[in-house]
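The material for today's practical consists of a large collection of protein records. Backbone structure tokens are a discrete shorthand for how the chain folds in space. An example says more than a description, so a record of this kind follows:
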Amino acid sequence: MFTGIITGVGRIVALQDLGSSASHGKRLSIETPAGYLDDVGLGDSIALNGACMTVTSLQLAERQFTVDISAESLDKTSGLDRTGTINLEKALRANDRLGGHIVSGHVDGLGTVLRFEQISESWELRIGAPASLARFLAYKGSITVNGVSLTVNQVHDTAEGAEISINLIPHTVANTALGVLKAGDRVNLEIDTVARYVERMLSTTHK
């Protein structure tokens, strides 16, 4: 369980094939900020761009850890199949503050960045979401983008699904990997857990 409050910005520095066919996954080596791994152990969960992964090894001298990711997970996520900057969040502890919203670390679908531009002191992030997720998106509702808990400022239905607009404050841009996004990039989306249950209850009310 996570909150969508990023605890560090890391970098995928190496990828190793776990087999010779497309059905095999990869082993990722992730470099972290200094001290980030001090309280991390083997088997701990860390979300990479919003996707929950298990720590399989630690190289403390290099400030690195590894995870094994399946071909299925690679197919259903974005940004984990290549080297580059990623958002990191350690799993929620029972006594932690819930600063964002309840996040499971399971990517529900991929969105496409339509616009990412600075407006005054803030930034506007517009994302096209697929039709399968459109009904879960609401004005002032929560959405997780590449692991970051964010608030939807606008939502418009489209023929392809929905277009959402999100306002990012400078702190978020500076302290997450969202700052490197550009139009056309694919992003990992996780819908709000509450919206998931509401949709299920409404769909079965009259059956």
User: Anything to note?
Assistant: Residues 27 and 68 are 4 Å apart (CA to CA). The helical segments are 71-76, 131-134, 170-175, 193-204.
